[in-house]
Write a structure and sequence with these properties.
307 residues; alpha/beta; five-stranded parallel sheet; two-stranded antiparallel sheet; globular
Length: 307
C-alpha cells in the first residue's frame, strides 16, 4: 500500500479562499471534542504511554458522523488540506481570547464552515458556544475522556507541532516555517495562538505545564455545559458505540459495521512523517530556483577569484 492510499487526507491540497464563500449546507452537529479524544479515525493517531507501548487508540467521531450522512465534518486535518483557513482561525482565536480584532459573527462562520454539516476536534472545539449561538438548531455532542490520560496522550503526539518552550517539538518545524510558506508558515501562527489561548502562557516547568493544560481542558468543557442545556446535548462516551449516538441524532437505522476504531501503533508517526516529507518536497520545489541562482553566483565569484 502506498502512502497516498494509506494516508489520503495528507495528499489533499486546496487553495480555497473561504472569505469568498457562504453556507451551502446546514450545520447539524457540533462536537465538543478536544484533540486526542477520538475525533478522527482515518488516519488514526494511536496513544502511547511513557514506554511507547500501545494503549487503546482513537475512536473516530469525524468518520462516524460522515458515515451517518453528516459530511463533510470539519477537523484539524481540514487546515492541512486548505492552509488558507489557518489565517481565519488565527483571527478568531486572537479576537476571542486576546481581544485583538473583531469577534467572528455568523457570517464569518458561514464563510469558514459553510461547506460542512458537522464539526469536531480543534480548532472548532474552542468555539462551540459561538457556533451554538450561530446555529441553535445544531445538536451538540460532548466527547470527553479522563484529563490525566488525555494529557499523557497529547504530550506524546500532538505536541510535535507545539514548537513552544513547553514542548519544543521537532527541529524541522522552525526550518520549514521559512521554506514552506504554503502550509507551515500559515499553520505555525494558528497552532501557537491555539495552544496559548486554551492552555495559557508558556513555561518550562513540567508540573505547571500539566496543570495549565488540564485546567484549560476542563474549562473548555465547563464553558460548553454552561451555555448548552442538558436536554440539548449528548454526553457521549466513545466506547458506547452507535446506538446512543444514532438515537440522539434521530437515526432509525444503526450501522451494522463496528464504530470506527483503529489500533495501529505506527499510524501517528508514519502519518506525520508523510506530511512533513511533503512539506520538504514542496519547499525544495519552491526554493530550488533561488538555490540554483545562488550557487551560480557563488560559482562565478569563485571562478573569477581563481583566475
Amino acid at each position: 500500500m502506498t502512502n497516498r492510499e494509506r494516508f489520503p487526507r495528507y495528499f489533499v491540497e486546496l487553495d480555497i479562499d473561504r472569505r469568498q464563500c457562504e453556507r451551502v449546507v446546514p450545520m447539524k452537529v457540533l462536537v465538543i471534542g478536544m484533540m486526542r479524544t477520538g475525533t478522527l479515525s482515518t488516519p488514526s493517531v494511536p496513544e502511547w504511554n511513557s514506554r511507547s507501548k500501545l494503549i487503546p487508540g482513537d475512536l473516530g467521531m469525524q468518520t462516524a458522523l460522515e458515515q451517518l450522512g453528516y459530511g463533510p465534518c470539519y477537523h484539524m486535518v481540514s487546515n492541512f488540506q486548505n492552509p488558507m483557513e489557518c489565517e481565519m482561525w488565527t483571527e478568531a482565536f486572537n479576537a476571542k481570547f486576546h481581544d485583538k480584532g473583531r469577534k467572528y459573527s455568523k457570517k464569518d462562520w458561514d464563510q469558514l464552515l459553510g461547506h460542512c454539516q458537522a464539526v469536531a476536534d480543534v480548532p472548532t472545539a474552542a468555539f462551540i458556544p459561538e457556533l451554538h449561538e450561530a446555529y441553535p438548531d445544531a445538536k451538540v455532542i460532548i466527547v470527553q475522556r479522563d484529563p490525566e490520560k488525555w494529557f499523557a496522550s497529547c504530550r506524546q503526539t500532538v505536541m510535535y507541532f507545539a514548537g513552544s518552550k513547553s514542548f519544543p517539538g521537532s527541529l524541522e518545524m522552525p526550518i520549514l516555517y521559512y521554506l514552506d510558506p504554503w502550509l507551515c508558515r500559515r499553520m505555525a501562527p494558528m497552532m501557537g495562538v491555539l495552544f496559548t489561548s486554551l492552555f495559557g502562557s508558556e513555561t518550562k516547568d513540567p508540573v505547571k505545564v500539566k496543570e495549565n493544560w488540564i485546567q484549560g481542558y476542563n474549562k473548555l468543557y465547563d464553558e460548553v455545559r454552561s451555555v448548552v442545556p442538558e436536554g440539548q446535548r449528548l454526553e457521549f462516551s466513545l466506547d458506547q458505540g452507535w446506538e446512543p449516538l444514532c438515537k440522539f441524532l434521530g437515526k432509525d437505522e444503526v450501522p451494522k459495521t463496528p464504530f470506527p476504531h483503529v489500533h495501529d501503533s505506527e499510524n501517528f508517526q508514519a502519518g506525520i512523517r508523510v506530511m512533513v516529507n511533503r512539506m520538504w518536497i514542496r519547499a525544495f520545489k519552491m526554493n530550488a530556483p533561488y538555490v540554483a541562482v545562488g550557487l551560480s553566483i557563488a560559482a562565478a565569484w569563485w571562478w573569477q577569484r581563481s583566475r
